[in-house]
Amino acid sequence: MDLITWLYLIDVASNIAVVLIVGAVLLLAALIINIIIYMGRAVDTVNRDYAKETNIISLKYIKTILPILCTVVIIASLIPSQKTMYLMLGATTAEKIAENPTIKDTGAKVLEIVNRKLDEYLQKESKWVF
User: Which regions of 1-130 does DSSP assign to beta strands (E)?
Assistant: First the structure.
């Protein structure tokens, strides 16, 4: 894939992580509300039939929300941060560049030229020393 495509996907993945975190917070709030309703109705002594119905419904919601919340939290925690994704993309790109035989050959030539020029410069400098 192109570098531009990877940059776009990194941005999309970071947005997905934000949406998952917001969803997890909303699911957590719904879970807490249902637990409070369940506990409140468990001690209700006046309307026992209504309390039982409400507890059944609340327990159904709790059993539904809890696995979804756990799944969302796990997925959100497995998505790396945007900074990490950029670092991984940069490392992969640098590795591809380093493995390119043309770049290796050119880099070796450049290094050889720089070393020769440095040697010439040092020889000229040594002539000026008294």
Answer: none
Helix (H, G, I), strand (E, B) or coil at 76: helix
pLDDT in the model for residue 50: 77
- The H or E element containing residue 52 is helix 48-78
Which residues make Cβ contacts (< 8 Å) with residue 17, sequence separation at least 6? 76, 79, 81
Residue-range domain boundaries for the chain: 3-99, 100-130
8 with 82: CB under 8 angstroms? Answer: no
Give me the mean pLDDT over the 14-18 stretch.
92
Query: Residue holding tokens 């929300």?
Result: 65
What residues have CB less than 8 Å from 104, skipping those under 6 apart?
Answer: 98
Inter-CA distances, 3 with 34, 41, 92, Å: 46, 57, 11
Q: Is 22 left (phi over 0), alpha (psi -120 to 50) or beta?
A: alpha
Query: Residue 129 pLDDT more than 70?
Result: no
